[in-house]
Design a protein that fits this description.
The protein is mostly helical. The protein is built from four helices and four strands, in the order ααββββαα.
């Protein structure tokens, strides 16, 4: 049992597991921010342009509620939450765009770093591959 616990401690303390856990926590917080942005900022603006309709309450009724003689609900209405679906799509598009921009920025930074390293390597002199090619060329001449 102690061996299993030790293996688990080793597994959990790896850098990539900790990085993943931090990423999940950050993604959850970021998801809450974008959901709030969509629900509290964007959707009221969209509602204003659609004549004051609250899209989060926009539903397509498949079956009306059924009541008995006393007015008590026998069966709940069946609705398709199209407004919630639209909000979720907008939420997804915002998150996807932000992730795209972050990846794009990382790629640009990575390319600049690679170019900088290549420039520094050229400034230092020939690479090992170039030296070997030169030696091989000299040997062929002789």
């Amino acid at each position: 049992m102690k061996k299993i616990i030790d293996e688990f401690k080793t597994f959990i303390m790896r850098g990539n597991v900790l990085d993943m856990a931090i990423g999940v926590v950050m993604a959850t917080a970021f998801g809450k921010i974008t959901t709030s942005l969509v629900n509290d900022v964007i959707m009221p603006i969209v509602g204003k342009f659609t004549g004051g309709v609250d899209l989060s309450k926009l539903n397509i009724c498949i079956q009306e509620a059924k009541y008995n003689e006393l007015g008590e609900v026998i069966s709940e209405p069946v609705n398709i939450g199209i407004g919630t679906f639209i909000s979720t799509i907008i939420d997804f598009i915002i998150i996807a765009f932000i992730i795209f921009m972050v990846v794009k920025a990382i790629n640009i930074a990575s390319e600049k770093l690679i170019k900088k390293e290549e420039a520094e390597a050229k400034a230092e002199g020939p690479t090992e591959k170039e030296l070997l090619a030169n030696i091989l060329e000299e040997i062929r001449k002789k």
